[in-house]
Amino acid sequence: MYDIVGIESPDTLEAAIEMLSNNPNLKIIAGGTDVLVQMRNGALEEIALLSLRNIPGMADIRIMDNGTISIGAMATFAEIFRSSIINEHLPVLSEAAVSVGGPQIRNMATIGGNICNGAVSADSATTLFAYNAELKLLSREGERTVPIEEFYAGPGKVNLQPAEILTAILIPETGYRKTSGCYIKHSTRKAMDIAMLGVSVVCKTAGGKFTDVRIALGVAAPVPIRCREAEAYAIGKETSSEIIREIGRYAVRASRARDSWRASKAYREHLIEVLVFRALKEAVIRDGGEDIG
Amino acid sequence: MAFEIVGKRAVRKDAAAKVTGRAKYADDFFERDMLVGKVLRSPYAHAIVKSIDTGKAKALPGVEAVITHEDLPKLKYATAGHPWSLDPGHRDVADRYILTDKARYVGDGVAAVVAVDALTAEKALKLIEVEYEVLPFVLDPEKAMLPGAPVIHEERPDNILGATSEEIGNIEEDFKKADYIFEGVYETSIVQHCHLEIQSAYAYVDADGRIVIVSSTQIPHIARRIVGQALGVPWGQIRVIKPYIGGGFGNKQDVVVEPLAAAMSLAVNGRPVRFALTREECFVDTRTRHAMKLYLKTAVTKEGKLLSLHMKPICNNGAYASHGHTVALSAGGKFRLLYDFNSMKYEPKTVYTNLPSAGAMRAYGCPQIFYALESHIEDIAREMKIDPIEFRKQNLISVGKKDPHSDIVVRTFGLRECIEKGKQLIKWDEKLEKYKEQKGIKRRGLGMACFSYASGTYPHGFEIAGARVVMNQDGSVQLQVGATEIGQGSDTVLSQIAAEVLGLPYDMVHVVSQQDTDITPFDLGAYASRQTFVSGAAVKKAAEEAKRKVLEIAAWKTGLSIEEMDIKSARIVERKSGSEICTLEDIAMESYYDRLNAAPIEGNASANVRTNAMAYGVTFAEVEVDMETGRIEIIEIYNVHDSGVIINPLLAEGQVHGGVSMGLGYALSEQLLFDTNTGRPLNNNFLDYKLQTIMDTPDVGYAFVQIPDPEGSVGQKSLGENTTISTAPAVRNAVLNATGIAFNKIPMTPQTVFEKLKQNGLL
Amino acid sequence: MDNYEKISMVVNGKNYSLEVDIRESLLEVLRNRLHFTGVKQGCSVGECGACTVLVEGLPVNSCIYLAVWANGKRITTIEGISKAGELSRVQQAFVDEGAVQCGFCTPGLVLTATALTQTGRKYTDEEIKREISGHLCRCTGYNKIFNAVKRVLNE
Question: Is the ipTM of this complex over 0.95?
């Protein structure tokens, strides 16, 4: 039994916003795989919930007229992994989605929940950072769109305003068109695990040179991060083994890894260097490049 | 011996019940008016409970009782699932109360609540006010033995629970004669059984005033005795029922939840109370595998003959004795019959610390001992530039070898064949050549390790088992055993033995899977891989008695002698001609309804098995080490076992798969971690404790070298625990072969591999 | 706020209308109220898969699924898999292949495997492993479980 004192299950977004506005203590619950576990561990007590499960259309995945891909916040990782739109245009997100937990979790856990709980290990977040995703947020005041990078405020903290709901994740066409990429999740186990380090890269190449490189890391700092210095260094450089190794070394500079019982700072930094290299190398191969060894 | 049913791939007796969800486990029984019990646990690793105020908790609506050590008898008891000993010097250490007045680890139970539901009970726990006097604590056994260390139990001011020394021959002389002396230190970590079903029991007082406990236990008869001792109640006043259980691996060879479940029920006038642990509690308040640090010193001649071994394990026992020093002692008796040392000295110390208690876990100390021994043997062979397999082979014991301490004689020894078989399976020579001089990022290597293990606990322990065969009118039988099915398949193999002896088709043996101490024949339960060997002997005896009774009736009817007849496929046949005399059903019907002589056929047997049989085996592993990330992948792995006659290959293979998988977790990923500043567990859940998933588990190859052992009732020896012993050292030796680096501590997690590679200048 | 809510759900083909405590998980309602005890509890946080049931044909961990969410849903537990006393193909494969030991993870695995057979898709060995990786098993080392699932998917 969970320490729940009430649950609201509105069937429209408007009603949900209304309920949230009237009762700022309502805790939003999506798939439940995180909120319920927190509740069981005693981190949340005597909670009144607002469930988004009964609102239709919140799990839709579609391409809009301007080419932007919209992923409903309530889309589960299984739905994302199986979506033909995602697999065609955002294959790295598909790769990240299937690395989350196990199949039963992927049938329940939603991408919106994964973002809003602010976990630095969130498998989807790093990849959305790399795709330059934006978040569509709805409140009584209306709708606002923020780059995902600005949404993360600290470990477990996001810039969700009171009575505000994340409704969709938007990936503009410039974020994904003609890109290649790769997600590497480093964890002790190959399933049912959280990332010790997550590396997501998205890149574009032309004539054997990088024209766009985006590198995002999870569990390398208190929040998911982009490696701007490494990205800037990469532009215009050849897609050679030496260059990619160097990009990996640059990526470490963006990190603020710490020692924890899960992994040491030294090991995480080493992994950043190695896995950024591997992910970028794989992205180049997927882009039609050669295996540069 | 030619068998009809022994040796067949019979499907499990309980398979249909389990795939349909009809198999009932302890949590699956409901009583009207059932209450729920929960425990308040100490947040401190070491603290005196000065006072407890339960007033607010008792006042919470829905709370039926709150109990503390003050409400319970001041009786110290021992929890280990061993048979009682009439000799007071041979008993387990009684060092705990049901609820404690001094917390000795984070999680020690100081109070309990009985309430209408779990949520109410949990809220009540928060209302209990405990005043603690916090004491210094110690987690490391070597530090615990130093003068001035915190004293965990007054009775043992040096914190040493057990320290023994056993010498065979004279090691001092042999070390003088040695051409080379090698030393090594090896360490293992705290791991846990992780049976999927958590410990759970419910208790109530029946209409006759007796305490009934339905529990997930491997040892119902022993649990009954221990509950009696803990509560100060005559043993006959207690009845323990063991339904299907969801795995045990030794953790349920201990009495963990039953005494408190009974105390909870007594606190509410005998109403039924369910006391089930959560997974997080299970990690700290049941049992663990002893972490050991093992100091090895070995004398060798220049020809490569092992002269002498001096082994000194330091075992981290945690806060309460549980199986305690017996684990180290017992393991000592098992490794001595592998290599032909001239002399050996084994000096284990088992030490109290402020951690969860270590107890029995699959193979009882042997995974630790053989990790050290087989790593050490490998290191010596490499150092001496002798092929590690040849080195082992030239030092193995042979048939007839006798252990002077236990008097166990090795009657069958198939290890040499096991090694040959394993070499072929993994293509040892070919691959070893191929993997020389590797330079790349991913490097492969081969390793192997041997083990020896006993079948049951004799002579250190006492081995008794009971079985009853009751024949029905149609000639089929019910088989009742005191041995407990815990997933390992004992119901099935014992049914096969009964069917074999009785000349019955397998389907005509109906095994009663549930044990009930009021009804079930006396048996000690599931541990020490004893059941096919020890309980198998009882089943054979009971079946033989029933068969004799059948043939006596047949003899009376036909005038033939018993010796002239046999039972084949439920028919009475004449031995000489093979011709059918009558059906077994005819005889069974007479036994029930003959007006003059009716006496339904039963066989009742208790076997006091005063013998043992050494079993052997080997693991061969091929690994690939990622020299950048430190990740170790298992490419191929094979276990080859000398376990005598394999009664059911389908089940035996399953034991190998599971044991190796558990061994791989031990080698690569599993360890229970504690905050050294507080003693608090860091990863007591399935997300952070890295039990292997299907994605992490390779195909596990296997082979069996079957030499019938004359002491096994059908030629069998132990197998269940054996399968997990040699995995970790084989993987460690393969990693050594791949990287040139010796890992003397497990688990070899990616980070520890990274650190070692860095230390060795490989990164 | 009222702590009870009325829900209707179909479990194993049969309609159930009942008042549930909003604090209850689907696991608790299925086990404690409806006595579908084949639904096992192994960790309560969605890490072991023992409590897996099918909700609208999809495997979910019923321990972290609120009972009120089951309103209007079609639920399948292990008790709904065999029909007229006959084992299903998945169940029979688990029996024949020796994929069962203690049996505690078995109901969940049989349900997930059943869901896979219902997709009509073909799965590679790696995909089979991935799709059943949400179930921990300590007894079998998964080898025979894999064999059983693969056999059914290839039949």
Answer: yes
